[in-house]
Design brief:
heterodimer; A: 162 residues; alpha+beta; Glutaredoxin; 4-stranded mixed β-sheet; 7 helices; B: 893 residues; Ubiquitin-like (UB roll); Rossmann fold; 7-stranded mixed β-sheet; 29 helices; globular
Chain lengths: 162, 893
């Protein structure tokens, strides 16, 4: 589902179908954006114009709402979202190095998604388990007491494949 | 309404329910600083500078969004309030650059003003600069978002006032900025460069870019915009006798704090180096500068000679729909008493005479029936043959606001896609020139389905039966066949229009400039009458005027058939009144209209002509012929600001002052009379138009009794109906805002409105195989009129330097022409060279060209085909073909 692909005519038709469910109802913008994101894995920029017209909004307004919420994306996301903690506790325990290593392993920068759509790398301010610092989260799973070796284990298959 | 009393700074004051603390404070003379507040915008409480303290519970409230409540105790300047305000402003300053010394906003910066009012000296907080840069290539405005305080005035102006929605907040937290879609430069967005946001921005974040003249404003003058028929109020900011900036005026019943790109950035033509500063006399085919004395003597002698040799009937005068009412009034008096001829007309003939005649015969009132502000009460707005977004932007804004903010249904009839198409509830695209048939079809549906306002039709109109009979043949099938619009759409539109309790009609040159313009106007009036939408707030007919004083010039009697105030020259009684006042006998037979003047000149019946502020060579059809005719005249005098294509043909050219250099009034399309005030002294030796005419009359031995403008206005007040007390601004406001003006009380001037049976006549000059395309002409937003002024406005010219012809993609492919390629557009009478622009706004077989580029006179393509009733030439559509320009051999390699 998350495969980055060109938006086809069928996709546009699907977007239109979703938008038409909420025709001219401004309140529905956020649920509509969420639905589109569920279907496509992200909010394709092409859909913004359709959404704006369908709901009677300006395209800039739709973009404004999307860019406000961290839950909404205009870029495809990786199957695994890796969040490296840069909170205070993790920082003093070497979180910065962990982030550097993850970047090296995944070959992407913060905020980026790998071209094969396997990983998206983000940082997070604190995940609340400072006792396990330094932490990182892959998907829903928290990995505590991180060290270079554990990072390598986590992403080893990545390197083998490449 | 229930009064609510609160204690404000220890004083009891009362307001009404729903009023905000800020509003009440302002009314009570208490000043509260604000950054994000503006009367025209929805309050949002974004800047928090206006906060006040509620003494009862200690809450700090943003006064611009807090409604007053009974027995509130509010302090606006307590130590706590001041301290909090200071902190807020300091926080803004931490991320604001310290470039105030060189910032062009200078003392106009509201952030700096408030900071200094609050006594903020050094900001002790750590600086958090906002690092943003945006690159713009447009010549109009520049964004430096490091100075942005996120007050959202620009965003609200764009979304609420101009309804373009080019920008909104983007991102969040520290990285928030107002941005276009994908944060692209403005020229790649929907932005129309109206300048409204620039005028509202409290800091230097939005600034004018390529300023024609630098420096700090020394004086400001409130006056009226000289471009389109909207008549927006503008403020001219002046330094060293130069207009340095134009912002929306404060008294603005029409524009509500907005302007368009022409108003904001087009007025620098005033200080153009091309302005004529001395009278010119042609000797041996070259112009020589002479003194006024000499020039006027030449003109007087010239006209005397023609008059003595060939009689008054051989003279003709053209007034101007761009000059003031007073200029036109003096000119027509000059023509009628000094020259002794009714051969006087004005350039408005080219676009508004169909309205004048059509509406007059139906409603007995020749102009727009309602004020623009009434449109707020419409349920449905029908726009036909008009692109107000380009031709009358303030009207466009009002329509878009109605649709967006009040859910008004917009019904659009236009073969071409315009800026309003996206806002339309229903959009019909009839074949060009078939409006009358379509409108008749609509009327028939309304009658057949019993959707008409029977009481209104019975009590207020006559000739209904004949009208009904005339519609018999306009069945859905028949209309469908002519117009190409489906029966379903016709039914839908008729029902929407007729069922609305208030429905307004807006039309423009897409109706009036066809040869059948008068018919279509009559058909529109029939629709409004059928549904009782005349004399009703929210209903009515809005006849857009192309130029600032198209309405006024006609009101003032620069017309061959009418004395000022539409009093017929044939009416002995009316003539008597003017003869008594003017102390001269007046010619009783109607004179010639503009194009008839040209015809007669061709036949050598007209030998001398006086043209004030018009440019027939470019504005009339068949430029080549017009040029020949004007060249063949014995004596031609042109009075203009510039050496126009017409002025070049003159024997004497008299330099006229611009709108910024004279006093007077313009009458806009609604009939609202707005003041024109002098901001700078006339350039060089130029003089206001009326003064030139008065001097000339002196020289000709028939002095006019006008020693000051006051003399002119008091004579107009005395003699012209509906201009009584027009210089008294209080009375004017009453007229404008009260309900007594116009036809609101359902009283028509003639008592009864009259249905006029209209027959659809196919347009002359249908497509032929040699000329397979139908060319439409119209206004573009970035230019105006014949381009005489807008092409001398540096920024407009820079942004839109070149004429173009729009063509749809499939036609372009068929002709193998590409975007940007130069081609020839050829009609039966002329040809022009222009650039191809592929556009999805057109259908197959249609072309569109703007007419405002002096180098590419589109009117050269038009033959002189006159509307039989009004003698208005057809200038909207003609048949043409496109020819590729062969590439010279040498360049092919």
């Amino acid at each position: 589902m998350n495969k980055a692909k060109k938006i086809t005519k069928a996709d546009l038709a699907q977007m239109n179908a979703i938008v038409s469910e909420y025709s001219q109802q401004k309140w529905a913008l956020i649920p509509l954006l969420q639905q589109i994101q569920r279907e496509f894995g992200y909010i394709p920029p092409q859909s913004m114009l359709l959404i704006a017209r369908g709901l009677g909004l300006f395209t800039s307004q739709v973009q404004g709402v999307i860019s406000f919420y961290t839950q909404l994306y205009t870029q495809p996301r990786g199957r695994n979202v890796v969040r490296v903690c840069r909170g205070t506790a993790c920082h003093v325990r070497g979180g910065k190095t962990i982030l550097k290593l993850v970047k090296q392993h995944l070959r992407i920068e913060e905020g980026e998604t790998s071209p094969d759509l396997e990983y998206t790398l983000e940082t997070v301010a604190c995940i609340g388990v400072c006792a396990l610092a330094p932490n990182l989260v892959v998907g829903d799973h928290v990995h505590g007491h991180m060290n270079p070796k554990k990072v390598e284990q986590l992403f080893r298959n990545r390197e083998v494949r490449e | 309404m229930q009064a609510i009393t609160i204690t404000l700074d220890g004083r009891e004051v009362s307001g009404y329910l729903g009023m905000t603390i800020l509003e009440l404070a302002k009314e009570s003379g208490v000043e509260i600083p604000t950054l994000c507040h503006d009367n025209h915008l929805t309050p949002t409480g974004a800047c928090r500078v206006c906060l006040v303290e509620n003494e009862q519970n200690g809450a700090l409230l943003a006064s611009c969004v807090t409604p007053i409540a009974s027995e509130m105790v509010i302090n606006t300047h307590s130590p706590r309030v001041t301290e909090s305000r200071k902190t807020i402003v300091k926080l803004m300053l931490t991320s604001h650059p310290d470039s105030c010394l060189v910032c062009d906003k200078g003392n106009r910066c509201q952030l700096r003003q408030i900071a200094s009012d609050l006594g903020i000296g050094l900001v002790e907080l750590q600086r958090i600069p906002r690092m943003t840069s945006t690159e713009e290539v447009n010549p109009f405005l520049e964004r430096d978002l490091s100075k942005c305080i996120l007050c959202a005035k620009c965003i609200r102006a764009c979304q609420e006032l101009v309804v373009e929605g080019a920008i909104d907040y983007f991102q969040r937290g520290f990285t928030t900025i107002p941005a276009t879609l994908d944060n692209l430069p403005l020229e790649n967005s929907e932005c129309t460069f109206c300048g409204t946001c620039v005028a509202l921005c409290p800091t230097g974040a939005l600034m004018e870019k390529d300023r024609t003249y630098g420096g700090t404003t020394k004086s400001t003058t409130e006056t009226t915009c000289p471009f389109c028929g909207c008549g927006c109020s503008i403020c001219l900011e002046v330094k060293d006798s130069k207009v340095v900036r134009v912002i929306p005026g404060k008294e603005d019943p029409v524009n509500h704090g907005t302007l368009c790109v022409r108003g904001s950035y087009g007025c620098d033509f005033v200080n153009s180096p091309d302005r004529l500063t001395k009278p010119l006399v042609k000797r041996n085919d070259t112009f020589e500068e002479v003194s006024w004395q000499e020039a006027l003597e030449q003109v007087a002698a010239g006209f005397k000679r023609v008059k003595d040799e060939q009689g008054s009937g051989s003279l003709a005068v053209l007034g101007s729909s761009k000059c003031t009412n007073e200029d036109n009034y003096v000119l027509q008096r000059f023509a009628r008493t000094v020259l002794g001829t009714n051969n006087i007309d004005n350039g408005g003939r080219l676009y508004n005479s169909a309205s004048r005649v059509g509406l007059r015969s139906s409603l007995g009132f020749s102009g727009t029936t309602n004020y623009l502000s009434d449109m707020e009460q419409s349920e449905v707005i029908l726009v036909i043959g008009a692109d107000p977004n380009s031709s009358a932007p303030a009207v466009g804004y009002a329509i878009k606001r109605a649709v967006k903010q009040r859910g008004v249904k917009l019904l659009l009839i236009d073969p071409r896609q315009t800026g309003l198409s996206l806002f339309a509830h229903l959009w019909l695209r009839p074949e060009i020139g078939t409006d009358a048939a379509l409108l008749n079809g609509l009327a028939k549906v309304i009658i057949d389905e019993g959707l008409l306002d029977e009481e209104f039709v019975a009590r207020r109109t006559d000739n209904f039966e004949a009208f009904k009979e005339s519609l018999r043949s306009y069945t859905l099938e028949y209309v469908e066949k002519i117009t190409g619009v489906t029966g379903q759409e016709i039914l839908a539109l008729a029902r929407l229009y007729a069922k609305a309790s208030q429905a307004a009609i807006v039309y423009g040159t897409g109706i009036t400039q066809h040869t059948t313009g008068t018919d279509s106007v009559g058909a529109l009036a029939n629709l409004a009458l059928l549904t009782g939408n005349i004399g009703r707030k929210g209903g009515g007919i809005y006849a857009l005027q192309r130029e600032n004083n198209g309405q006024g010039a006609c009101d003032m009697g620069t017309l061959p058939k009418f004395l000022p105030g539409y009093q017929s020259v044939a009416d002995a009684q009316a003539r008597g009144r003017f003869e008594k006042c003017w102390g001269a006998s007046l010619p009783a037979e109607a004179g010639l209209t503009t194009l008839e003047i040209m015809e007669q000149a061709e036949k050598e019946k007209i030998k001398g002509m006086y043209i004030m502020g018009e440019n027939p060579v470019l504005s009339f059809p068949n430029s080549r012929l017009v040029t020949e005719i004007l060249t063949s005249l014995d004596f031609l005098v042109v009075q203009d600001m510039f050496l126009t294509a017409t002025a070049r043909l003159a024997n004497v050219v008299l330099p006229a002052a611009s709108f910024a250099e004279k006093e007077g009034t313009f009458t806009n399309f609604e009939g609202r009379i707005s003041k024109v005030r002098k901001a700078i002294e006339p350039l060089g030796e130029s003089l206001p138009d009326w003064e030139i005419i008065v001097r000339l009359a002196d020289k000709m031995g028939y002095p006019l009794p006008f020693s000051s403008l006051r003399d002119v206005t008091s004579e107009i007040e005395k003699l012209v109906p509906s201009y009584e007390d027009y210089t008294d601004s209080e009375k004017q406001d009453e007229l404008a805002y009260g309900e007594t003006g116009r036809t609101y009380d359902r009283q028509f001037l003639k008592g009864f409105a009259r249905f006029s049976p209209i027959e659809y006549v196919p347009q002359v000059g249908q497509r032929k195989s040699d000329y397979p395309f139908t060319l439409l002409t119209g206004t573009t937003l970035y230019h105006f009129g014949t381009g005489n002024r807008s092409s001398r406005a540096c920024r407009l010219r820079k942004f839109s330097p070149q004429s173009f012809v729009e063509i749809c993609e499939s036609d372009a492919r068929k002709l193998a022409v590409t975007d940007g390629e130069e081609v020839k557009v050829v009609s039966a009478v002329g040809e022009v060279t222009t650039m191809v622009k592929i556009s999805d706004t057109l259908r197959k077989g249609m072309l569109f060209m703007p007419f405002s580029f002096p180098e590419t006179p589109v009117n050269a393509l038009f033959d002189i085909v006159l509307n039989p009733e009004t003698k208005e030439p057809s200038l909207k559509a003609c048949s043409v073909r496109i020819e590729k320009i062969p590439v010279p051999l040498g360049e092919r390699l």
